[in-house]
Amino acid sequence: MSSEYRATAYSGEPALSKADDAENYGTTKTTAAETAIESDSESAAVAAGLRQLESRDVHWYSYLLTFDFWVIIALGQILALCITGTNTFTSFLGSVNTIIPAFQTLFNYALLALIYLPITLYKHGWRKWLRIVLKDGWKYFILSFLDVEGNYFTVLAYNYTNILSAQLLNFWSIVCVVILSFTLLKVRYRWVQIAGILICCGGMGVLLASDHINGTNGGSGKDMLKGDLFGLLGATLYGISNVFEEWFVSKRPMYEVLAFLGIFGICINGVQAAIFDRGSFEGATWNGDVAGWLVGYTLCLTIFYSLAPLILRMGSAAIFDVNLLTANFWGVIIGTRVFGYSIHWMYPIAFVLIICGLVVYFLVGTILGDSKKPWLGDNQKDGVAGIGTAKLKALNEARKRGLASTDAEAVGTF
């Protein structure tokens, strides 16, 4: 990417029915029976809330007037700025020959584990956490592996090919997301959504064209073929990891997902840094400035990972990737102040096109947008009632209209 990294705020309890949770994690049969009744009550409340939300008289522009739409736009730009920050700090490190792509990301995974593992242990307890490790640990390991390797191969691509080629290859991650969501998660895109994605890609094309006109595409790379192959692999891994993460955060608490992403990320990234970054340490510069840049890089990336789940819940992996296209625009804005870049007249046009594409994507005449996930079953029964989810919106609506008891969960927790 120009956005080198993708990722994933908290939620309520897992969406698996509480009876299923008892079976999976060893609660007693009495508890299972009691919670099954609670689950039935919650399911009825969700069904009533969804009926109320979906029966509203909506127009093609209705979603644009919702709070959710503006939150998605705002979050998307915050994430794009975080990515721009990580790229800027990486450029600073490269300027003093401190090229340690795996090692510098290790601190992010460590910080994620430090923040979210205690929350997970407090919410679940040691025994339940260990059961989750035994049952679902391999799934979290795959998610972490995809994330770490996507980061690594994208950085390698920038080392071998030019910027224009690397950015063009980032479009492939959007293609992967759409294909995987359609085939594996049963997402069905409407023509207006496809049109919105294409308009966003057109905006990115204008941005790349302006870079080419200005001669800021990086010239000829050291090994264009190798770099392009690394970029293609990195974009593919990103696409898969984004879809996998959307599936995870729609079904499990966010603190749990981020905690495991941090734990396994430390292990995978640590081994990779020990193998591939070991030689870079000898010629690297180590001083106060480098320490500050590493801190800035880590904070930007951790904020990115912590906020990303909201877009994945309120929107989708496709919207997540499309929003990050604007990171190139913000990168140039910062570059004018830091690296002396100049803004081409086509840049504002590109930014407006990307935002317009996002607006067009949501002209689907539904009040829930992409927050209602098709893989969660009827009434989102397999989903978590967490912040940003359709299930929580339905519970809140049912409670507001008196269609659910006040005992029904209607507030997402942190």
| Overall helicity | over 70%
- The Cα radius of gyration reads 22 Å
Query: What overall form do the CA principal axes indicate?
Result: globular
Number of strands: 0
Largest sheet: none
Calculate the mean pLDDT score and round it. Answer: 81
SSE order: HHHHHHHHHHHHHHH
Domain count: 1
Structural class, from helix and strand content? mainly alpha
Q: Could you tell me the strand content as a percent range?
A: under 5%
Continuous helix count = 15
What distance separates the N and C termini? 31 Å
The unreliable regions are 1-30
Organism: Cladorrhinum samala
Pfam families: SLC35F
InterPro entries: EmrE-like (IPR037185), SLC35_F1/F2/F6 (IPR009262), SLC35F_Transporter (IPR052221)
Protein name: Solute carrier
SSE map:
Elements: H1 18-25, H2 29-54, H3 67-95, H4 101-124, H5 126-160, H6 163-183, H7 191-214, H8 224-251, H9 254-276, H10 280-283, H11 288-314, H12 317-323, H13 327-338, H14 346-361, H15 390-400
